[in-house]
Amino acid sequence: MSMSAPARDELVQQLERVLGSALFRTGGRSGQLLRFLVEHSLNGNQETLKEYTIGAEVLGRGDSFDPRIDSIVRVEASRLRGKLDQYFASEGKSDAFVIRLPKGGYVPTFERRPHTVPVKTPLRLLVLTALTSAALASVVILLIWRPWRTPTAQVSPVVQFESELWSEGELGSAAGTHLVLSPDGSRVVFIAFNASGVPQLHTRRLDELEIALMPGTEGARNPFFSPDGQWIGFWSDRKLKKTPISGGVPIVICEASDMLGGSWGDNGNILLSLTAEPKLWLVPSSGGTPQVAVELPREVNRSVWPQVLPGSTAVLYTATGDRGGDAASIEVISLADRKRKVLVRGGTFGRYIASGHLVYINQGTLYAVAFDLTRLEVLGSPVPVVSNVAYNPIFGFGQYDFSQTGILAYRRSSSRGEVTAKWLNGYDRASPIFTNPGPYLWPRLSPDGRTLALTRSDSDGSHLWLSDTANGKLSALPSASKTQLSPVWTPDGRFILFSGVKTVEWMATDGSERKGTLLRSRTIQIPWSLTANGRLLAFHQLDPATHFDLWIVPLKEQDGQLSAGEPLAILKTPAIETYPTFSPDGHWLAYTSNRSGNYEVYVRAFPEGHTDVQISVGGGRCPRWRPGLKQIVYSSTDRQVMIVPYRITGGRFEVDAPRPWSKIQLADTNVFPAYDLGVDGRIVALLPPDPAPHQRRNHVTFVMNSFDEIRRRVGTNNR
Predict the structure, then answer these.
(1) Residue 565 pLDDT more than 90?
(2) N or C: fewer beta carbons within 10 Å in the chain?
(3) What is the pLDDT of residue 233?
(4) What is the Cα–Cα distance from 453 to 497, expressed in whole angstroms?
(5) Torsion angle, CA of 160/165/170/176, rounded to 10 degrees?
């Protein structure tokens, strides 16, 4: 029996029904694209539904849109097809008409369904159906029966969901946690790279499938919820901002050159870690100028990742020293009398949770201990509750969050911070230098390419190691210093410079014990580049007011000893500037800056440069000059090694578009270097262990009813 073709009014009603569904109603590109395609088809304008028209008019690419190099239309069309299939298999399974988008084209089709009887689905089943869709790759339900519990105990089962938060790119940002839960546990907000390779806030209700971009949040870091769950605070463009969770334009709260954590108190004020000092700052959520709320003694290197405790009378924070997150302390301070207590030594990213516990990270394990909120003290001994949680041992942030209703969301560590070193031999090939993985950072090749210097970081500090690039043999450099970062070889290979505890040190490489101090400071100094003759060192130095700035200092060797002259600041702005790198002829300087709100690579003339040329696109850091080939190499935001050809025309520095050196993705070393370039142009890279542990790039684990399990394992402050 044939069915009559749908009437126009019926299809318009069906379009509005789809767009008003839970899957589509949050808007975004899928809804805009569907409306455009359907309305143009119903108006007889199918011939205009071409890739260029859609990209230029609907997806905001403008007249310069080139579908040959920009795949956004194909990506969004594929996403729309999937959403339509999901809708008509769930919410719309009883609808009279079906809208489909055939593969290979952009003209939708409309079909009348045979008569079906609507079937009501319980809400709980709808939620589980959503959770088992493509949005959540698999579900593991752990119903834990423990006969030793009393029959009267009302204990909810622990339910664990393994989730893929699909977006245009990988979850991540330059520094800070990637995801946060709303206080009521109904929603997750996370940072993922958008189609342009820029980190941006995304949001999804846990009982729905739709993931929506939050407009105006490009370059976002460190998101945190307001107590009522209606706003998200975040950092971008060197400002603290807030944006409504329901959608809208972000509002600037205050200027902030950098931020390592923020927390929104229930009194309407926001507490922040803003500067490279042991201070915490307070600003009204309505906007204003930050004021110092907490000033700690100098024994605390920096106070980061604050959390305002309930009642807004005290704040929890991580106190860092010179040895990173694993050697940090979790502290609390009363905002009324400024009394300070150390709660845990050897932990980072502490959080008070509504079960009555303090949780924190140590070497990738989440610990919990009972906490008395009135007396501001821990009770009993910490107990490990979750292993293999992703965290950063340098900055100390962890990839986890709890809602006030007992939902835990966390990311697993894909490699536990361990890496191997390999040569990148081409676009898709790599050969090992050493294969035994370890917590290595800061790779630097010797001038002859025979030795690779690295920093190995653990709870005992950060120490320099050397690897023979021929056989991979690793050996530690003897030193009493607990901090040895950013090794730099002198051009003749006779010395290694490195960052110590607020110093720049040097050490001979001939096996003798010749060593010394080049620079002393009250803050961090990171040596990075030497001129070809070894007489000038470029480094970046931390300033409490302007963050990292670029400096140079002359060096001199006499009788086998190195000494330094007077340092000079060459670029000092409110932005963060790092990794100053001399060109082979010494006439140009490449460096990284976040002046645009995103880390990018720039080049300026040296020493009198005042005009900067941006050479990276969509994020970049850690530049290197490729000798003899007029190319600059840098690492992109998505952890690829990029190459930029350049030329100098009439004294002007001109560049071509960046292109990937290799499709192999570097290890996630955060803002620190994960590769180095030898004088022969070869590239050595820090890569995840081979084979890499199974961890998809957008994977998140959700645990429901976690509080009961923590109370069972740890106890409470009433025990």
Answers:
(1) yes
(2) N
(3) 96
(4) 11
(5) -60
CA nearest to 547, candidates 520, 525, 569, 574:
574
* DSSP at 412: B
d(CA 624, CA 678): 10
Identify the burial level of 608 via C-beta atoms within 10 angstroms of its C-beta, where 0-12 means exposed, 13-18 middle and 19 or more buried. exposed
The SS3 of residue 35 is: helix
Provide the phi-psi class of 622: left if phi over 0, else alpha when psi is between -120 and 50, else beta: left
**H or E element, residue 180:** strand 179-181
Task: Give CA separation, 374 vs 227, 311, 368, 470, 652, in Å.
Answer: 20, 10, 18, 60, 64
Per-residue DSSP letter, 58: I
Question: How would you classify residue 84: left for phi > 0, otherwise alpha for psi between -120 and 50, otherwise beta?
Answer: alpha
pLDDT surpassing 50 at residue 408 = yes
Pairing relationship of beta strands 536-543 and 525-530 according to DSSP bridges: antiparallel
Do the beta carbons of residue 525 and residue 539 sit within 8 Å?
A: yes
pLDDT category at 346 given cuts 50, 70, 90 is confident
Q: 644 near 656, Cβ under 8 Å?
A: yes
Cβ of 453: how many Cβ atoms within 10 Å? 23
pLDDT score, position 415: 54
- Residue 352 Rama label (left phi>0; alpha psi -120 to 50; beta): beta
Read off the pLDDT of each residue in 76-81 and give the average, rounded to a whole number. 81
CA distance 390 to 503: 30
349 three-state secondary structure: strand
85-143 pLDDT per residue, tens: 878 877 788 888 899 998 878 999 988 876 543 333 333 333 433 343 333 333 333 33
pLDDT tops 70 at residue 588:
yes
pLDDT, position 115: 52
Q: Is 451 helix (H, G, I), strand (E, B) or coil?
A: strand
Q: 35 phi and psi, to 5 degrees?
A: -60, -45
Its pTM stands at: 0.68
- Nearest to 131, CA basis, from 122, 143, 139: 139
pLDDT(58) > 50: yes
Please give the full DSSP string across 88-115, using - where no structure is assigned: HHTTTTT-SEEEE--TT----EEEEPPP
Percentage of the chain modeled with pLDDT above 70: 88
Of all residues in the chain, the percent with pLDDT exceeding 90 is 44
Q: Give the amino acid at 359.
A: V
Q: Which of 116-125, 287-296, 685-694 has the highest mean pLDDT?
A: 287-296
Residue 198 has pLDDT above 90, yes or no: no
- Report the run of H or E that residue 11 belongs to, with start and end: helix 8-19
| SS3 label, residue 13 | helix
Cis peptide, bond prior to residue 382, ω within 30 of zero = no
User: Coil, helix or strand for 143?
Assistant: coil
User: What is the length of the chain?
Assistant: 719
* Cα 175 to the center of its chain, rounded Å: 5
Q: What is the pLDDT of residue 453?
A: 94
- Residue 75's identity, in one-letter code, is V
Q: Which residues contact 536 (CB under 8 A, 6 or more apart)?
A: 530, 552, 553, 554, 555, 582, 586
Residue type, 477: L
